[in-house]
Design brief:
This protein has helices at about 10-25, 40-50, 55-70, 75-85, 90-100, 105-120, 125-135, 140-155, 155-170, 175-185, 190-205, 210-220. It is mainly alpha-helical.
């Protein structure tokens, strides 16, 4: 069993990518009802399938949308997210890069490039990409959070803490940023501070498995775990 805190796995990585697209899909459905297939565009159907995590169907619909409008960067980005759902990271990276080529100022696509590069094992390139995103949009919490993840991967814990704190300042109700701030503090040996962050993450999301794991691990290391 691993004794390292959990920063994020593929499921959390995927959630980071699909959250914005899924929220757009939900907001486009009156009363939370689905769009009738005979009235929906391929992009609308793709967003719905993405929200339902039916990635194969989402890819089919987004590819149809791209065929109809090949120069829309948003469609390329959405197709990339669906490909991540299929664990086709190289294909996803290609689509994110095409989205950024079509619109060099498209921060979401550049941010997705950074996260995908990180998952593909190139943290240096991921850092360069995400640092550029933060410089482009300094008031967007998600960029600081993602940059913090990369900094943790390359071992710059102090700067990662600063990025996580900035993300939390901008979006105080983010259990992911709070949990990972705890992970970074634990890496510096600040166990009490880390435990406080894990507990706060769980107050915001009581079913947050990684925060439960990290809290238990932190209490065990501190000697506070209850006896069996």
């Amino acid at each position: 069993m691993s004794t390292n805190p959990r920063v994020y796995g593929h499921a959390v990585f995927l959630t980071l990518l699909i959250s914005a697209v899924s929220s757009q899909a939900a907001s486009g459905c009156a009363g939370g009802q689905g769009i009738a297939p005979n009235t929906a565009s391929p992009e609308q159907l793709g967003k719905q399938f993405l929200a339902l995590k039916k990635f194969d169907r989402a890819v089919i619909q987004f590819r149809r949308a791209v065929q109809l409008s090949p120069n829309l960067p948003e469609l390329r980005n959405e197709l990339g997210v669906a490909l991540v759902g299929q664990n086709n990271l190289k294909g996803a990276l290609s689509e994110f890069k095409e989205a950024a080529r079509l619109d060099p100022g498209y921060a979401d696509a550049r941010s997705n490039i950074g996260l995908t590069l990180l998952k593909l094992g190139d943290p240096k390139a991921a850092f360069d990409e995400l640092r550029g995103v933060v410089e482009q949009e300094p008031l967007v919490a998600e960029g600081h959070y993602r940059l913090g993840l990369v900094l943790m991967t390359i071992g710059d814990v102090t700067t990662a803490i600063a990025e996580f704190r900035r993300a939390i300042e901008l979006q105080p109700q983010s259990p992911e940023a709070i949990n990972n701030l705890g992970v970074a503090l634990a890496a510096q040996g600040k166990v009490d501070e880390a435990l406080s962050e894990f507990r706060q993450a769980l107050r915001l999301r009581p079913d947050y498995a990684d925060a439960h794991y990290n809290l238990g691990l932190g209490e065990l290391k501190k000697g506070d775990a209850p006896e069996a």
